[in-house]
Amino acid sequence: MTAIAIPLMAEVHLLDVAGPAQVFGDAARLGADFSLHFVADGEAPLASAQGLPLAPATEWPELKPEDIILVPGGRAATLATAARLGEDSLGRLQNHYAVGGRVASVCSGAFSLGLAGLLDGRHCTTHHQLQNELALRFPQARVVSDVLFTEDEGILTSAGIASGIDLALHIVAQQEGPAMAARVARGMVMYTRRNGNAPQLSGILRHRAHLIDVVHLAQDLLDERFRERLQLAEIATAVGVSARTLSRAFGQAIGLTPLRYQQLLRLEEAQSLIQHGSTMQAAALAVGFDDGRMLRRLRARDAHDPRDTGVRSH
Predict the structure, then answer these.
(1) What positions does the domain HTH araC/xylS-type occupy (predicted)?
(2) Which of 42, 85, 104, 164 could be bridged to 89 by S-S, CB 3.0 to 4.6 A?
């Protein structure tokens, strides 16, 4: 039985805790050998960042080298103000790693790993808004940008809040096999498991840093229906403008045409399917291309000049 100890602190983010906890809990209900333990240094209950009071145990379980301590993140405009573990829990992190145990973090939980001295010389990541600060605060750490999670000699770190789910599924796949991880993912209504090198900021998020409402409305439609054959006029009518106005607004807002944005979404989804075993042809058909030729051309083009998409080629 692998114990997953999750130390909590005041202002902890609920999803940082609940996402991985559901992964390991669901895996256990399906027969996997995981047990969950929620602990804290001080008196319970403590308040989460969202206001829900939590009542973790104040006594830690006896941990074996094969067990995992997973540190969630907390409210964090900056790392300097981030919720973090107390001295007792930091000492437990150090001791557990020293005897061969694994430690993991979600989002700003990487700050606690850094304070415990566990990031020096290790690849790691955190929320995209905190990565530069993490690198400055711990200059010996090898902070990796725009990935979902990293693993380096027993140190596992994940990026923004929901990526803790991806990291937990990765651990389940390692210990119980990909089939078990896939069953858990399906039960959580996740379309596919993503690997650690998947971009933290997908096209759906990367191109939303603007204030043009009509473009956001068009993106909403494309995000939902990117597999379909959508004509520019159809999209424009749906958002209440002319095709010419929509094209001009798209270019001003994100530097892409609506068609190129749709291709980006298709390409990212196809990349994920291929990474999980689909053939080029099957992935192309699944995302709306007629066959694999267009997908091959897009992958080749973005491998040569990825500047307008941010898509990684594999």
Answers:
(1) 216-312
(2) 85
pLDDT tens digit sequence for 218-277? 988 898 899 999 999 999 999 999 999 999 999 999 999 999 999 988 988 888 788 768
Q: How far is CA 6 from the centre of its chain?
A: 18
Q: Would you kindly state where each structural domain of the chain is located, as residue ranges?
A: 2-187, 203-304
Q: Distance between CA 44 and CA 20 in Å, rounded?
A: 21
Nearest to 158 by CA among 92, 71, 79: 71
pLDDT in tens, 145-164: 878 899 999 999 999 888 99
Q: Which of 34, 44, 39 is nearest to 71 (CA)?
A: 39
pLDDT confidence band for 309 (50 / 70 / 90): very low
Superfamily in which the 2-187 domain is placed by CATH: Class I glutamine amidotransferase (GATase) domain (3.40.50.880)
* pTM, 2 dp: 0.71
Task: Say if CB 238 and CB 228 are below 8 A apart.
Answer: no
Architecture of domain 203-304: Orthogonal Bundle (1.10)
Three-state secondary structure string covering the chain: CEEEEEEECCCECHHHHHHHHHHHHHHHHCCCCEEEEEEECCCCCEECCCCCEECCECCCCCCCCCCEEEECCECCCCHHHCCCCCHHHHHHHHHHHHCCCEEEEECCHHHHHHHCCCCCCCEECCCCCCHHHHHHHCCCCEECCCCCEEEECCEEEECCCCHHHHHHHHHHHHHHCHHHHHHHHHHCCCCCCCCCCCCCCCHHHHCCCCCCHHHHHHHHHHHHHCCCCCCHHHHHHHHCCCHHHHHHHHHHHHCCCHHHHHHHHHHHHHHHHHHCCCCHHHHHHHCCCCCHHHHHHHHHHHHHCCCCCCCCCC
d(CA 31, CA 26): 9
Share of the chain above pLDDT 90, in %: 60
